[in-house]
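Repro case for the chain-ordering regression, as requested:
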Amino acid sequence: MAHAPRPSKRTETRQEIERLILSAAEKVFANAGFKGATMQLIADAAGLPKANLHYYFTTKEDLYRRVVQDIFEIWLHAADSFDTAPDAATAIGAYIDAKMEISRRHPDGSKVWATEVMHGAPVIQDYLESTLRDWTDGRIKVIRNWIDTGQIAPIDPRHLLYMVWATTQHYADFGHQIETLNAGQPLSDADWHTAKAAIKSIILRGIGAAGSA
Amino acid sequence: MAHAPRPSKRTETRQEIERLILSAAEKVFANAGFKGATMQLIADAAGLPKANLHYYFTTKEDLYRRVVQDIFEIWLHAADSFDTAPDAATAIGAYIDAKMEISRRHPDGSKVWATEVMHGAPVIQDYLESTLRDWTDGRIKVIRNWIDTGQIAPIDPRHLLYMVWATTQHYADFGHQIETLNAGQPLSDADWHTAKAAIKSIILRGIGAAGSA
DNA sequence: ACACAACCTGACCAATCGGTCAAGAAAATT
DNA sequence: AATTTTCTTGACCGATTGGTCAGGTTGTGT
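-- result from build under test --
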C-alpha cells in the first residue's frame, strides 16, 4: 500500500516534534508577543527541555518566522471560493464562512499575524509586498468584474476586502473582549452561527448582492 | 482674567513632561509591544534620561496602565452620536466617521489597545467587565429601539457593533498592511474619504437604513 | 538670603533571557 | 557488533533590562 518512499522513523518523529514545537510556539507568541514569549515558556508548553528547541530551530526568530509563514498559508487558501463559486453572493458568503472558521479554529495564528503586522511586519514584509499584494490585486479584479456584470453595487473593492478581513479576524484577535462581553463565556455553536449570519447579511445586502436572500 | 488658582510653574511643567512621556510611551508600546518596549527606548523617544521616567512613573507597568487608560477614554466618547443624532442612519454614520478619525489620528493608541486585549487584557480586565460592558449594553438597547421603530432591519445589535469596531480599527491596527497594499504610500485625504464612504455605504445599506442615500 | 522641597541623572545592580557546548543516549548503517 | 550519525539535555555565559540611589540642581515660600 505504501508506495511512496516511506519516511524513516527518524524523519517521522522529527516532523512530529517540529509540529509540537510550532503548535506550542504559536500559542505562546499569540499570548505574549515576540519579546514576551521566552524559549523557556515555549519549551514548557511543548514539554521539552529548552536546549532541545534550539536543536530543531536554531534561533527564536527562525521559530517565529515558521509560525508566521504557516499562518499565511492557511490564510491565503481561504478565498478559493472566489474562483470556484458561480456568483458573487455565493463567493463572498463562502469566503466569510471560511475566514470565520479560521478565526474559530486558529485564533492564536490570527493573533500572531495581527501582532506581526502591527509591529510593522519586521519578518514578513517581503510577503506583504509580493504574495499578498498579487493575491489582493487578483481578487480586486474579480470583484471589479462582479461590479461590471451588475452582480453587486459599485463599491470600492479594496475596502470591501478590508471590511471582510477586519470583521472576521476580529472574532479571533479580540476574542477575549468578545468573550468578556458575552458574560465571560466563549461563543457557543449557536453564537458563531448568529455571528456568521449577521456578518453575511449586512455585507451581502450592503453591496447589493440580492441573490443572497 | 485668570481667576482660577493659577497652577505653579512646577505643576505646569510636570503635566507637560507627563504628557511628553505618555506620548513617547504610546508610540513605543504600539510598535514594540509591552515587553519589547524598553524604558530606554521610551526615554530616547521622549528625549529624557531613563532615570527621569522612573521619577514620574514608578514602574513600566504604571506607565503602560496610564497609556491604556487614556486610550480607553478617547474610545468611549466616540459614540456620543448615539444619544444625540436624530435617527439611526445619522447616528451610525457619525459613529463610523468618529472612529475612523480616531484610527487616523491615534493609530498608536489603537494598536496598544489591540495588543492589550489580544494578550488577555492583563491590566484592563476590570474595565472590560465594568465600564465597557455597561457601555455596550446601553448601545445595544439604543440599536434595539431602532429596530423596534423600523429604522433598521432586525440584525443582531452586538455583531453590528463588533463590525463597526473591527472595520474602523482595522485602519489603525493594520495600517502598515494597508499602506503596503497601497503601493507603500500612506492613505491620502481622498483615500480616507473613500474608505469612510465605502464603509458607511455598505453598513448603512446592509442594515437597511434607507435614510442614508 | 535662607531653608526646604521638588526635580534631575550618571552609575550601578540583580534578574532574566537567548543561545552555546560538551558529554552522553538512541537509532541507523555497515 | 562496531561505528557513525542523529538526537537529547543540564550547566553555563554574555548581554540586556527594569529599577535603585546618592549626590547635585532648580524652583518656592518666608
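Ordering looks correct now. Residues 1-5 of chain B have pLDDT under 50 and may be disordered.
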